[in-house]
DNA sequence: AGGTGTGAATACGTTCACAGCG
DNA sequence: CGCTGTGAACGTATTCACACCT
């Protein structure tokens, strides 16, 4: 209600493109909507209802409608959302039209896999540099890129105007890598190393820890086991489902 | 206040071990506390204050104290928390003393890296089986395990009483793999494939999508860029930091 | 009708601030 | 006196239910 810039074409960012501050929870779901929309577009759908898109994205329709309403979106009452238009809107909001340069630090087990991960390129990301501290790895060719030494990280990251740095090093070196990235002007970091990174407040850090995910699942296993073992308990109470049946 | 089972030794699960239902947000942070505690234990610390542990885990102390209070935890006022005791408590709650069997489906780029990921074994998880649908990969040895065909997944997963299944296949086959896991009695799934899995409500699914993380960072890059471009805006407003300086 | 957009109601999570214990 | 544990206040996210548009 505060600012509805209906007439602004998304791609055209002349001055200030009316950037709404979306709730974090909404932002985290937009990529999922986008994936679902791309899938729908491939199957030839022109429009989707909130119900349909919500099912494809694994959320309920009320949440989806509220999320989309935040970005002042176009839907047609009685019809639904225009798939192509919504794709453009979300890609614009997420800044995926910018084809951002990504560098990857740490070409071990995991880093090697990330370097070859197709999902990065298929969204608007270009992996443009690989780094490792191990002299034996420097010079190695991975996916058309040559691994460079981390000593050169700061210089090269600045030269290539890297937008996002991905850290896949052992925990001990992660902070030093983060410092180098920050010094090179990188303001977004995706961290796969366990542990806390300390960075200036204008730098965004997202963390992915595979072991943590397993531990959370382990907790739920433990909980489920102790429920079924309950003396007076029913054998399998229908837990409040997090991700319910969606009927593909 | 409702149930404080102070006298119950964690490891001893004779009957019903007073399982509190912790908030999801708390559960998600427990592994982080655990990692910080292990680190502290290595440096020889016997006790920590909420302030100290919070800093090591990257949260503020009020949050940490509330989280720990939920598991009816032992802290000594005026002193802090006993590191060793808290480690035991959290490991018990998370069910990490059960040494759960994990299987990994999809030994491609990412799956290969996961199979060799040290972080799994170092917490209480044993990767006991690897599967792939590609006949060329079946028979391959990775980290001491032989890759088996996904046709045998259901049988083997049941035999080995797998607790957690990790899906690292292409999106197209993820649902079929999930179905097989569920049929084998697996009730926890960690999914690296993009897309929504539909499973019975008693099965927990956690999803990790590397491309989504980058897209979220991209949004924030976009937002930061549009802020600094603001006509009347200051050049770098101190955004409400998500992960602030922690002073290592 | 059919389906979006949205106030109002509810649930959940975080932060404050301090009582009370060691 | 220091630090935990916790009610109360606040803020954020989800869900409901329906007015309103096509």
Automatic annotation (TrEMBL), chains A, B:
<comment type="function">
    <text>Modulates transcription in response to changes in cellular NADH/NAD(+) redox state.</text>
</comment>
<keyword id="KW-0520">NAD</keyword>
<dbReference type="InterPro" id="IPR003781">
    <property type="entry name" value="CoA-bd"/>
</dbReference>
<dbReference type="InterPro" id="IPR009718">
    <property type="entry name" value="Rex_DNA-bd_C_dom"/>
</dbReference>
<dbReference type="InterPro" id="IPR036291">
    <property type="entry name" value="NAD(P)-bd_dom_sf"/>
</dbReference>
<dbReference type="InterPro" id="IPR036390">
    <property type="entry name" value="WH_DNA-bd_sf"/>
</dbReference>
<keyword id="KW-0805">Transcription regulation</keyword>
<dbReference type="Pfam" id="PF02629">
    <property type="entry name" value="CoA_binding"/>
</dbReference>
<feature type="binding site">
    <location>
        <begin position="106"/>
        <end position="111"/>
    </location>
    <ligand>
        <name>NAD(+)</name>
    </ligand>
</feature>
<keyword id="KW-0238">DNA-binding</keyword>
<dbReference type="InterPro" id="IPR022876">
    <property type="entry name" value="Tscrpt_rep_Rex"/>
</dbReference>
<dbReference type="InterPro" id="IPR058236">
    <property type="entry name" value="Rex_actinobacterial-type"/>
</dbReference>
<comment type="subunit">
    <text>Homodimer.</text>
</comment>
<keyword id="KW-0804">Transcription</keyword>
<feature type="domain" description="CoA-binding">
    <location>
        <begin position="95"/>
        <end position="196"/>
    </location>
</feature>
<protein>
    <recommendedName>
        <fullName>Redox-sensing transcriptional repressor Rex</fullName>
    </recommendedName>
</protein>
<keyword id="KW-0678">Repressor</keyword>
<dbReference type="InterPro" id="IPR036388">
    <property type="entry name" value="WH-like_DNA-bd_sf"/>
</dbReference>
<keyword id="KW-0963">Cytoplasm</keyword>
<comment type="similarity">
    <text>Belongs to the transcriptional regulatory Rex family.</text>
</comment>
<feature type="DNA-binding region" description="H-T-H motif">
    <location>
        <begin position="32"/>
        <end position="71"/>
    </location>
</feature>
<feature type="region of interest" description="Disordered">
    <location>
        <begin position="228"/>
        <end position="248"/>
    </location>
</feature>
<dbReference type="Pfam" id="PF06971">
    <property type="entry name" value="Put_DNA-bind_N"/>
</dbReference>
């Amino acid at each position: 209600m505060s600012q509805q810039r209906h007439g602004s074409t998304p791609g055209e960012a002349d001055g200030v493109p009316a950037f709404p501050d979306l709730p974090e929870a909404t932002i985290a779901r937009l990529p999922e909507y986008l994936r679902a929309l791309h899938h729908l577009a491939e199957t030839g759908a022109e429009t989707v209802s909130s119900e349909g898109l919500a099912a494809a994205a694994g959320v309920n329709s009320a949440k989806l409608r509220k999320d989309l309403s935040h970005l002042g979106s176009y839907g047609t009452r009685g019809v639904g959302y225009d798939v192509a238009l919504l794709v453009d809107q979300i890609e614009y909001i997420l800044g995926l039209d910018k084809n951002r340069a990504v560098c990857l630090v740490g070409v071990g087990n995991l880093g090697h896999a990330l370097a070859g991960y197709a999902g990065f390129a298929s969204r608007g990301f270009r992996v443009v540099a690989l780094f490792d501290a191990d002299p034996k790895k420097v010079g190695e060719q991975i996916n058309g890129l040559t691994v460079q030494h981390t000593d050169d990280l700061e210089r090269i990251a600045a030269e290539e105007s890297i937008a996002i740095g991905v850290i896949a090093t052992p925990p001990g070196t992660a902070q030093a890598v983060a410092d180098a990235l920050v010094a090179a002007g990188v303001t977004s970091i995706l961290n796969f190393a366990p542990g806390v990174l300390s960075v200036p407040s204008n730098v965004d850090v997202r963390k992915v820890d595979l072991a943590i995910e397993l531990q959370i699942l382990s907790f739920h296993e433990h909980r489920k086991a102790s429920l079924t073992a309950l003396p007076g308990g029913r054998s399998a109470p229908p837990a409040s489902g997090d991700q319910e049946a969606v009927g593909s």
